[in-house]
Amino acid sequence: MARKIHEDALGVAGAETIIGTGVKLKGNLITESDLVIDGRLEGNITAAGNVSVGVNAHITGDISGVNVSVAGELHGNISAQNEASILATGQVRGNISAGGLAIASGGIFIGQSQMEAPGTTEPTTEPEAGESEQP
Amino acid sequence: MYYYIVNPAAGRGQIKNLQDKIRSRLDELGIRGEWVKTTGPGEAGRIATAAVDKGHTTIVAVGGDDTVNEVINGVHQDNVAIGIIPLGLHNRVAGQLGIITWQQACEALAARRVTPFSLIAAGQKFFLSTLTLGFETELDKQVDTAETKLRGRIRQFTETFGHAENFRPLHCKIEVDEKFTMESDIFTLAISNQKFLNPLADNRLIVTMSEKPAHRFGVGRYAWQSLRRRGTTILEDTATTRFLARRVVIETTPASGIMVDGKVAGRTPIAIRLTDRRVKFITEKIIADFKGALNKNLPDNR
Questions:
Q1: From B184, which residue of chain A is nearest by alpha-carbon distance?
Q2: Interface test with B, best of A6, A8, A23 (most B CBs within 10 A)
Q3: Which of B179, B199, B290 sits opposite A30 (nearest CB)?
Q4: Of A35, B57, B189, B225, which residue is 20 to 30 A from B146 by alpha carbon distance?
Q5: Which of A23, A31, A32 sits opposite B241 (nearest CB)?
Q6: Backbone dihedral region of B95: left (phi > 0), alpha (psi from -120 to 50 degrees) or beta?
Q7: Which residues contact B20 (CB under 8 A, 6 or more apart)?
Q8: For residue B290, which residues of chain A lie inside 8 Å, CB to CB?
Q9: What is the per-residue pLDDT across B134-164, written as a single tens digit (0 to 9) for each?
Q10: A36 part of contact set with chain B, CB < 8 Å
Q11: Within an 8 Å CB–CB cutoff, is residue B232 touching chain A?
């Protein structure tokens, strides 16, 4: 029985924030952990960990996190300390500032991107002008 | 000196048969103390308050979760440690603190290893363990959860499954830390102090919400789990939404009852917050050691 308690305890230790499919959020979401969101949000996300935007997610607002991956729909800007990635089902309409950027085939990105080395604030490359979209 | 508050009705009165053995063991361990029996619901809290006022610094609840929660609400000073000898039908709080049997409880009391926890307030009531809302809240009205024999258990499951299938999700609006609001149709919602679930974690409310499973298999699995755990715990593996907070205000349509450790404790709308009120609990050795070993690697463990 004692062993079971420890399993329960450790199960919560990695307590990432999860917002499920049927949830509608309004306001700014600030979390000290990783965040997985698959619902609708009108507001900004500030996460101390990684942010994963699920395939059912629809977000109107900016996202800031360590790594940000988007499989759903985002109308807003991304600021990622490390990498921002747009997955095959992802759509981003906004600007991206990140250490690295990956766009999967099928992913949509309309906006400007700016690459920054992790831990710096100065851009290492010139920002792209205009819009880019990958079919 | 230890002060024992005994609920003679707990666990269908099993204290009658165990009282002499327990007191004898407490004698051997040198922690006999005062032994006071309650005479009705709510009295454990009043007795605890009086005992603390008299200067007792170790209050032991002898009974189940109801007795423990009454004692928690009666202890109003933070220099007091609360111990538990679990003799109730539902001993969720003791179990989570690593205390399963009365023998083990006596050893833990003698060792007096304490862990402080911030209490949660739901309206005017304080609690340590888990608040639930939704499907499980209604469960006790529909199903006799005290049944223990196999045939009874099968009937319980059948009734619980039926109740789960027919349960209409509650439309729930939650204001979180006055920063954002969320809306969802929920099947069940549970709130606990994450430190209660994981002694290494900070004191924060952990809120989990589940939507109604889409398939009958999912409903059946949920019904089985909630029955097994008697609606007093967070069913993490079925949760679709989980977040940390310090204060939440919950409204539901229609209004619904809330349960604390399996007992109805209020109705929505209700504000639930993590308080500054900390209570020290006497915990089982293995949890204290487990925590101690891992503490060495943690810079900050509040």
A1: A23
A2: A23
A3: B179
A4: B189
A5: A23
A6: alpha
A7: none
A8: 6
A9: 877 766 555 555 556 677 777 777 777 777 7
A10: no
A11: no
Asked whether the beta carbons of residue A15 and residue B98 sit closer than 8 angstroms, the reply is no
DSSP states of B3-45? EEEE-TTHHHHTHHHHHHHHHHHHHHHT---EEEE--STTHHH
Tokens of B11: 């666990």
Tokens of B288: 């204290």
**Over the stretch B72-96, which tens digit does the pLDDT of each residue have?**
999 988 889 999 999 988 888 898 8
First to last CA, chain A: 54
Mention every residue, 6+ apart, whose C-beta is less than 8 A from residue B15: B6, B7, B8, B22, B62, B63, B87
A58/A41 Cα distance (integer angstroms): 6
| Nearest Cα residue to B262 out of B64, B13, B86 | B64
In the three-class reduction of DSSP (H, G, I as helix; E, B as strand; rest coil), residue B202 is classed as coil
Q: Does A8 contact B at CB distance below 8 Å?
A: yes
Phi, psi of A110 (to 5 degrees): -120, 110
Residue B199 DSSP class: T
User: What pLDDT, on the 0 to 100 scale, is given for residue B132?
Assistant: 87
| A-B C-beta contacts closer than 8 Å | 92
A97-112 pLDDT, tens digit per residue, is: 999 999 999 999 999 9
Would you call A9 and B206 a contact, using CB atoms and an 8 Å cutoff? no
Distance CA B269, CA A116 (A): 47
**B228 confidence band (pLDDT: 50, 70, 90):** low
Instruction: Kindly state the tokens that stand for B79.
Output: 């220099």
